[in-house]
User: Which sequence fits this backbone?
């Protein structure tokens, strides 16, 4: 391909970067998609999970005989029936050995004790759902309550109850640069504050769901809504069978946001089906999704910044403590993300960060869009505004004096290799707010806030991440793409279709993308970590480029024109600037295949790699690259009730290259809406480990009435590491909303609130304290 | 168990149901899986269908209550307004994962049959019982507003 130079040869974009209608979107609007729970099989059984109603207890006795004897119940499984009851989900996806953090194991089903309310203890399979539910009530269990610990800082103290064995601290990371003590002494201004965030629920509308069956070749098959089809390895491990004997077919996912990254129903349906030999379906109830599934980590963040009087940051010190809940899952890696992102997108010469993730008897915590970087934004962007106020400086100016630039090293010493357009995104977001709204009443105060965020895209370099894709042409000029990447709803699959259409000239409608099947599609890794476009998009681009090369060579012969002058679009090969000189793609394909070239390509894309982590001190290249952006909001604060109403929202992001601007806007609008819920209303509440918010009436997420018309501003630096210079946009959009709201509340009423969510009660209390002080 | 008959889209469907069976469960059991269950308690709106022309969350309707009624789901054929809505949702990218979409389109279908020219605030009001976790609603409101213009 080098003699043509595919990237240079491609001069015009016909599909990439255009607002094209998606093929999957049509099927979704028509109601045609068969989501996980929509699929059934003959003879299928229905499963239920029996769960703990204690946060910390010993299981003294467990009697399932009455449940087993209920007519219609086919099987009841407890921990002792499981070949390997310890599952290792510290490293979901592709690679196992990544260094420092020992794999902390969770149980498929609780053995002799439970560590959180909702912990799975037994599985039931019955002929119908009603019977399975009835059988749940017949399981007899006797607990002996054990002391629990529900606050991570309490859990760090000597003498605190151990959630597992020994220390409750499950992970610790460090950032070090320069000499912070000396720098703080020399700083003109120092601001020091503590911030706190809450448990945050994904609240995807589709519940976790799947069907498992054993086929005629004794294969364990799962059809499941998952962000990680590579979980087949985990299932094989639990069942004690070869990995080649488990196949996961992912479905189009009804929302995930990290909620379908760790194992969900897979081990339960696999175990039941494996034991019974019949298909088994399990779909969670909303209540179960609330108290039985992981949340975003609450953080306590102690931050100290020092600056010169002209607004140059000289030092930052932070202590970060996350609540890992009862089982570790991805807490260590979430904490690593927090630590790396804790500085914000600023150059700070002296840095000292210590972070800890701590076990408690609360709900377990793991992946959620923003993955540990999001919580940090609340702290560092509040700090910037507080510091600016102390310096009597415009917050825009303070930030402008400290942005990371391309070529700078971040806190781990990783050089920023792409553009940092923050000065532009910040300015654009501010400008888009327009004129300040007049307050509607004397008791309404209007304020504005802006915040930045940065977020890595692509997994940690230690993982040596890879993604593979296959592209092949059909005789009639249509094309097939095979790529393992699951589609989370963000249009991951559509992007592959667009990239293939752009490079092969096949119309979008004539490209079929087969995705998310662990034994049919080349493995492409997880749909997590804002990696899908970077990884599977790049792999598909490599494969489609190989096809393009062959098509151009043959079209060159057939059209008697140099390949560099030929382009492919809409089912035709044609000479640029000469519309008459063209040939149908199908003819070119037939000519090539006739010579024994099957016109198919399998390619693998490799992310940048790095040595495994061997020390708590994080150094060097941790991530492939970062995305940067800014958010601005205008709020009305009702000083009588404490209610905060967001009247304007703007998001401005450098996405590198927008493969489909409509979908990029969707990520911006959707991410900011979740961010607004996080800022204003969402909190999963537990009282000593007992869940209090177990439905969507008590756990409030934004509705159409809570969100103003969001303005999305897309910038394209073309400097990303993804296809055509794209960066990733999936996660970065969620983070800066909360600090923008906090900064806006301060602008409106002069009160710094350092915890979220800023519910009316919280705001009202802060206002009252402020008035009493004044 | 009681035998009920419901006109669902273009078919007359008869079935035996328990007194506790919801309309949602009945619809899904009969293969109308385009009607989604997101919560089972009337909070999310994913199971919205038209029952005798009115938008309802089918998880809060008992199947026996729907005996002799007419139910319309997103898959109803030859409904011009539904087709226009579906096209508008695709054009405006008014969906991401698509799971809440069949319910939202039915709410929109009901809104436009009650009020052919709603303003944005009225669209927001009508949608307030349908949760979407992906889009942030803006493009959904845009799509519905576009249909009111296209219909003009």
Assistant:
């Amino acid at each position: 391909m080098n003699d043509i130079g595919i990237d240079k040869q491609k001069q015009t974009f016909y599909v990439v970067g255009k607002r094209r209608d998606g093929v999957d979107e049509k099927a979704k609007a028509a109601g045609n998609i068969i989501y996980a729970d929509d699929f059934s099989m003959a003879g299928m059984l229905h499963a239920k999970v029996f769960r703990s109603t204690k946060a910390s207890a010993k299981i003294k006795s467990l009697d399932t005989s009455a449940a087993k004897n209920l007519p219609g119940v086919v099987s009841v499984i407890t921990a002792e029936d499981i070949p390997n009851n310890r599952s290792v989900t510290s490293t979901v996806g592709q690679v196992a050995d990544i260094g420092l953090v020992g794999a902390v194991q969770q149980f498929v089903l609780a053995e002799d004790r439970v560590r959180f309310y909702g912990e799975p203890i037994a599985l039931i399979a019955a002929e119908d759902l009603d019977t399975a539910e009835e059988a749940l009530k017949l399981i007899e269990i006797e607990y002996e309550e054990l002391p629990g610990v529900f606050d991570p800082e309490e859990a760090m103290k000597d003498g605190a109850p151990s959630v597992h064995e020994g220390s409750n601290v499950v992970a610790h990371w460090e950032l070090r640069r320069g000499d912070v003590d000396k720098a703080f002494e020399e700083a003109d201004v120092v601001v020091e504050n503590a911030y706190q965030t809450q448990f945050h629920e994904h609240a995807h509308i589709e519940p976790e769901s799947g069907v498992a069956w054993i086929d005629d070749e004794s294969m364990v098959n799962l059809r499941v809504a998952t962000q990680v089809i590579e979980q087949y390895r985990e299932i094989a491990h639990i069942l004690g069978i070869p990995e080649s004997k488990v196949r996961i077919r992912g479905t189009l996912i009804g929302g995930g946001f990290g909620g379908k990254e760790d194992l969900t129903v897979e081990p339960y349906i696999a175990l039941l089906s494996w034991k019974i030999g019949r298909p088994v379906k399990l779909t969670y109830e909303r209540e179960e999704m609330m108290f039985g599934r992981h949340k975003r980590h609450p953080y306590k963040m102690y931050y100290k910044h020092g600056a010169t009087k002209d607004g140059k940051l000289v030092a930052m010190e932070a202590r970060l403590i996350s609540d890992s809940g009862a089982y570790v899952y991805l807490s260590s890696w979430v904490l690593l993300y927090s630590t790396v992102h804790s500085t914000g997108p600023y150059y700070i010469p002296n840095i000292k960060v210590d972070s800890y993730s701590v076990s408690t008897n609360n709900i377990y915590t793991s992946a959620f869009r923003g993955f540990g970087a999001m919580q940090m934004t609340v702290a560092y962007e509040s700090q910037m505004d507080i510091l600016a106020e102390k310096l009597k400086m415009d917050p825009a100016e303070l930030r402008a004096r400290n942005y990371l630039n391309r070529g700078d090293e971040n806190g781990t010493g990783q050089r920023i290799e792409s553009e940092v357009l923050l000065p532009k995104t910040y300015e654009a977001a501010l400008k888009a707010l327009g004129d300040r709204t007049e307050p509607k009443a004397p008791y309404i105060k209007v304020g504005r806030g802006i915040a930045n965020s940065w977020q890595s895209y692509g997994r940690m370099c230690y993982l040596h991440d890879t993604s593979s894709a296959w592209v092949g042409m059909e005789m009639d000029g249509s094309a097939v793409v095979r790529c393992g990447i699951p589609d989370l709803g963000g249009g991951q699959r559509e992007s592959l279709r667009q990239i293939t259409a752009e490079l092969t000239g096949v119309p979008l409608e004539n490209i079929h993308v087969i995705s998310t099947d662990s034994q049919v599609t080349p493995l492409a890794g997880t749909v997590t970590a804002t990696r899908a476009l970077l990884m599977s998009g790049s792999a598909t681009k490599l494969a489609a480029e190989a096809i393009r090369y062959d098509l151009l060579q043959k079209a060159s012969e057939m059209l008697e024109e140099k390949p560099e002058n030929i382009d492919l679009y809409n089912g035709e090969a044609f000479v640029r600037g000469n519309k008459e000189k063209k040939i149908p793609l199908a003819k070119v394909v037939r000519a090539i295949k006739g010579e024994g070239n099957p016109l198919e390509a399998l390619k693998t894309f490799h992310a940048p790699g790095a040595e495994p982590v061997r020390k708590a001190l994080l150094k060097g290249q941790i991530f492939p690259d970062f995305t940067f952006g800014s958010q601005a909001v205008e709020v009305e604060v009702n000083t009588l009730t404490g209610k905060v109403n967001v009247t304007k929202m703007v998001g401005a992001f450098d996405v590198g290259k927008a493969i489909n601007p409509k979908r990029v806007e969707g990520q911006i609008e959707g991410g900011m809406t979740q961010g607004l819920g996080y800022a204003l209303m969402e909190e999963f509440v537990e009282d000593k480990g007992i869940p209090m918010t177990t439905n969507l009436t008590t756990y409030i997420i934004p509705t159409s009435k809570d969100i103003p018309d969001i303005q999305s501003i897309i910038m394209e630096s073309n400097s990303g590491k993804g296809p055509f210079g794209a960066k990733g946009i999936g996660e970065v959009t969620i983070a800066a909303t909360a600090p923008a709201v906090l900064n806006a509340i301060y602008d409106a009423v002069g009160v710094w609130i350092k915890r979220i969510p800023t519910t009316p009660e919280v705001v009202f209390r802060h206002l009252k304290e402020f008035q009493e002080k004044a | 168990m009681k035998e009920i008959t419901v006109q669902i889209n273009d078919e007359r469907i008869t079935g035996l149901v328990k007194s506790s069976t919801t309309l949602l469960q009945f619809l899904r059991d009969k293969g109308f899986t385009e009607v989604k269950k997101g919560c089972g308690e009337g909070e999310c709106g994913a199971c919205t269908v038209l029952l005798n022309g009115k938008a309802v969350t089918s998880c809060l309707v008992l199947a026996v209550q729907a005996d002799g009624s007419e139910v319309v789901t997103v898959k109803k054929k030859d409904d011009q307004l539904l087709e226009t809505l579906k096209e508008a949702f695709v054009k405006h990218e008014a969906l991401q994962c698509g799971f809440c979409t069949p319910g939202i389109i039915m709410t929109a279908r009901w809104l436009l049959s009650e009020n052919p020219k709603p303003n944005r605030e009225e669209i927001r009001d009508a949608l307030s019982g349908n949760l979407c976790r992906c889009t942030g609603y803006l493009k959904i409101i845009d799509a519905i507003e576009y249909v009111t213009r296209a219909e003009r």
Q: What stands out?
A: Chain A touches chain B through 56 residues (CB under 8 Å). Confidence is low (pLDDT under 50) at residues 92-100 of chain A. DSSP finds 19 helices and 30 strands in chain A.
